[in-house]
Design goal:
The protein has ten helices and eleven strands. With about 270 residues, it is of the alpha/beta class. The chain has two domains: about 130 residues, Rossmann fold; about 110 residues, Rossmann fold (3-Layer(aba) Sandwich), CATH 3.40.50.720. The strands form two sheets. A six-stranded parallel sheet has the order 8-7-6-9-10-11. Strands 2-1-3-4-5 form a five-stranded mixed sheet. A hairpin with a 2-residue loop joins strand 4 and strand 5. Helix 9 packs across helix 10. It is globular and about 55 Å long.
């Protein structure tokens, strides 16, 4: 087992539940490790890592640092390169290595709730989390529409897919909600609120990647009309389980850890 101490880095970071759920995982696995939250703003990551105490060797990264991490030219997994998003940084034998666990977090969150497959997917938002969602639900025969207000991101969004056809549509009232069997919201807090009043004919599973604020307007709408929701706590938990396995270099039993970590997170919301 690897000896490690770490933190979640990002800005703003005060609301992060990562220290809570990581500690639950370490306690369950009887791992002695410290894990805190550190405010690191955009443009400050390289300086922070250059001044990091040697005992800190394992980091989770959240916005706005996921793209910045990939640009630091550390050895990086092919997946993190393709989606241009790294959320996991570990120092092994003196060298930093970058990975992404958001993709498996999306996949495991859905797999724990349903064995359904999806043919028409809508992703709201066009940032790093959207690209992770594209990679997570990319499969032969799938059509992925990305509702984006950032036309300049279309190339990077399409590159995130290996198999599925990715189309960019407007982030507006013209979204054809009835078309989709999976809707994934990766947009910033509050960004999708204005869409709710125009949703009609929807029957899709909603994957809401946010957990702050809680619940989002989109989650509340879905639940009010009796539709199923997978929420941001599941994503947080499942990507963290994969990070713990990387940090500690030990196998983990996801089915045992996930409910314990989710329960701890729910108590803090």
């Amino acid at each position: 087992m690897r000896v490690f101490n770490g933190a979640v880095l990002g800005s703003p970071i005060a609301h992060s539940l990562s220290p809570v759920i990581h500690q639950v995982g370490y306690n369950f696995l009887e791992i002695s490790a410290k894990y805190t939250a550190v405010e690191v703003r955009s443009g400050q990551l390289a300086d922070y890592l250059n001044s990091t105490p040697p005992e800190l060797n394992s980091f989770s990264l959240t916005m706005p640092l996921k793209e910045e991490l990939v640009d630091l030219d550390f050895p990086t997994s092919e997946l993190a390169k393709r989606i241009r998003s790294g959320n996991t940084l570990t120092k092994i034998n003196g060298s930093w290595k970058v990975a992404n666990t958001d993709v498996i977090g999306f996949q495991q969150s859905v797999a724990s709730k349903t064995n359904a497959t999806f043919q028409n997917v809508l992703i709201l938002g066009a940032g790093a989390t959207a690209r992770a969602a594209i990679a997570a639900f990319d499969s032969v025969g799938t059509q992925i529409d990305v509702a984006s207000r950032s036309e300049h991101r279309s190339v990077s969004l399409k590159r995130a897919s290996l198999f599925a056809e990715v189309s960019i549509i407007g982030f507006d009232t013209e979204i054809p909600w009835s078309k989709y069997d999976l809707v994934v919201n990766t947009s910033p807090a509050g960004a999708a609120d204005s869409l709710v009043s125009n949703i009609a004919g929807v029957s899709a599973l909603l994957f809401e990647s946010l957990y702050h604020p809680w619940p989002t307007a989109l989650m509340s709408f879905w639940r009010n009309v009796g539709l199923e929701v997978i929420d941001g706590l599941d994503l947080l938990v499942h990507q963290a389980i994969s990070q713990i396995a990387i940090f500690a270099e030990v196998p983990v039993k996801r089915s045992q850890l996930a409910p314990l970590m989710r329960e701890a997170a729910l108590k803090r919301i």
